[in-house]
Amino acid sequence: MQETQNPASLKLVAELVPQPCWYSNMRSLVPRPIWDKLRRQVYAQYQHLCGICGADTRLHCHEIWHYDDATHIQTLAGFIALCEWCHHVKHLGHSAGLASEGKLDYNRVIEHFMRVNNCTLEEFGTHRSQVFKQWEAHLADRAWGLPKAGGEENINSPNRGASNSILLKLASQRKTIDQSGELIKEIPGGRRA
Asked: How far, in Å, CA of 171 to CA of 71, rounded?
């Protein structure tokens, strides 16, 4: 799938999630101690600053997913430390839902987008429209799966808990996450560093 065309000047863009994948994330797939260890590694990698706007505040560990239209497979490509407001922009659709329930100030989300990108309200509107058009065309209601990683069962499998290790492939970095939460490189021949 082609990514939404964004002006090169946009540092912060929305990333809408396919509807069948809503509320499905790595945090819910691994035991809490492993997730906590992993997110702390990500925060340290970003020197405990937001990876987009540089804010020195409470951070969220955002999962970066890529969606393949041909195979309908979503692949975890990495992680980034985000401040609360950059995270709300990334999940713009969810943020709109929270705002409609009175749980979030959507204008503050828009203002953060405009401040980080040094852009106008019109440019925000164009980006928002473009992202939602892409979502409707490619991501809205298709069935999406997760790839098998390192020979293990598909992590959507109901038997996932039967395995002693949880290996999730990070496509862009050719890394896996082992059961202790360590990021480890795969080495040909099945050995790990």
From this structure: 15
Give pLDDT tens digits for 114-168: 999 999 999 999 999 998 888 777 655 556 655 554 434 334 333 333 222 333 4
Q: Do the Cβ atoms of 142 and 72 come closer than 8 Å?
A: yes
The torsion of the CA quartet 29, 33, 34, 40, rounded to 10 degrees, works out to 120
